[in-house]
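## retry 2 of 3
previous attempt timed out at serialization; input unchanged, resubmitting
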Amino acid sequence: MTVEVSWFAALCDDDYRYLGVHDPALKSSWTHCSAITRQADRLGYDSILLPSGYELGIDSVAFAGGIAPITEQIRLLVAVRCGELWVPQLARQLATLDQMLEGRLSINIISSDRPGETMDSAARYRRTRETMSALRTLLNGEPLDIRGEFLDLQVSPPNARSQSGQCPLFYFGGLSEPARDVAAECADVYLMWPATMPDVTATLDDMRARAARHDRSLRFGYRAHVIVRETEREAIEASRRLISRLDAGEGARIRAQSLDSASVGVRAQGMLRESADADGFAEANLWTGIGRARSGCGAAIVGDPDQVLAKLENYMASGIEAFILSGYPHEEECDLFARYVLPRLEHAVLA
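## retry succeeded, writing output
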């Protein structure tokens, strides 16, 4: 089975040698994040996620415009938060990016409060549905006429068009009922955060059924950290070293700083961590220690190359077609995964 393998550019100030201990050299910056992206491009990853967080780091869309001309083959998965940019302008920016990338653009849609705003979850997802529908229409080169709760627009598509003339793939995740419904109706790739295999299977079954009610089908992606070393013992030692200097108060502060730190998905990551054994493992090779100082994706696949590969293949057998991986520090772990595991996966971008 062919799978898309993506890495992660730490635009949201999320890179450490020791979790929770801030290193100026690893801060979110053009210099650091472009180095991660160029390395992932050089090592043959299919794609790289450019995350978005207003208070956390540099801007994903602006960064994508800067990195596009100096990458060769890697696809950019650019995260955009609904409501932060006016939809017609966002469509023009994304179409321009896709031209610069010669079609190597995908879009990670995020539903969250805007900076300085607190909105009821159900209303926020209604805004997300309108935004995704309107954005897809414009990126397909079609005129938009919408009289919605949040968008009241009659506008022609921008003259700037994507490379193919069609909307790039929408990646979208969320565990709440409104999030699942929006994904089933509007997303192309449904993204999951780490979970035990039974929970992964249950979520995929649920999302397939929801999509079918809209006469649609979804692809599925899995976002996780990874720590791979030549031996399992070395990998476990690396995981322990990563959290060896973590202050509990600083960990709590980091977990709380994201705009979506109280979401159903974030709470689920906390429950996964609470269910883990004394060493932090929720199940074989799935370690939750990273979630002690991270809002969002809070677990890592930990093991030797054979164990990490087997874990990924288990997810693939359940229906996962795309992985978005990361590790600390991101440049070093990017190299280690590319050395030990990436060549053993048959991988290519989703189309």
